[in-house]
Design brief:
Blueprint lengths: L1 H6 L1 H9 L4 H8 L4 H32 L1 H25 L5 H29 L5 H21 L9 H11 L1
Length: about 170
């Protein structure tokens, strides 16, 4: 909750600049406030649903176009969206949830496709004897990277943008 509250400060400032009184703007974005709860619920469920949909879409495109073409396209799109997200995090100029959600959309789309392609390639190349070991190591490394990337925000003061920017760049 403190992380989202600290990150919502630019949104409060935008509402105040738009003419809303500061107490009313803050009441909307404090933990438990109307907009805070709405965004928290959205950010909790949308990525999981989008990951499932794009995973299925990635499988369909792989069957249709082939693994190499889809993997190449996914890597290019992922690199482009990661670069865009890193630019937004570094510059600090774009404090706009729609822009960040758009960048996150492209990152999620390409990651879902890339994970599906990697897993199908590993399954194809692994023998029956070592498939469990290979997938166990693959899953361990993937989950550890995601976990440490997400938990990195707890290693410092989230009220300042420095740690958020570092974790965001590493996560991209």
């Amino acid at each position: 909750k403190p992380a989202i509250a600290a990150l919502s400060a630019p949104l409060v400032e935008e509402l105040v600049r738009g003419g809303m009184p500061r107490p009313q703007a803050m009441a909307l974005w404090v933990p438990g406030g109307e907009l805070y709860v709405q965004w928290a619920r959205t950010l909790f469920f949308v990525p999981a649903i989008a990951g499932g949909v794009f995973g299925l879409l990635g499988g369909y495109l792989t069957d249709l176009l082939g693994r190499r073409r889809v993997l190449t396209f996914s890597i290019l799109l992922y690199a482009l969206s990661a670069f865009g997200a890193a630019v937004a995090l570094i510059s600090g100029i774009i404090v706009n949830p729609v822009t960040w959600m758009s960048l996150r959309f492209f990152t999620g789309f390409t990651m879902a496709g890339a994970f599906m392609i990697i897993e199908s390639w590993l399954n194809e190349k692994a023998s029956n004897e070592n498939r469990g070991t290979i997938f166990g190591l693959y899953t361990m490394v993937s989950l550890a990277a995601v976990t440490f990337g997400q938990l990195g925000a707890a290693w410092g003061d989230v009220a300042t943008p420095t740690l958020f920017v570092i974790v965001g760049i590493l996560y991209c």
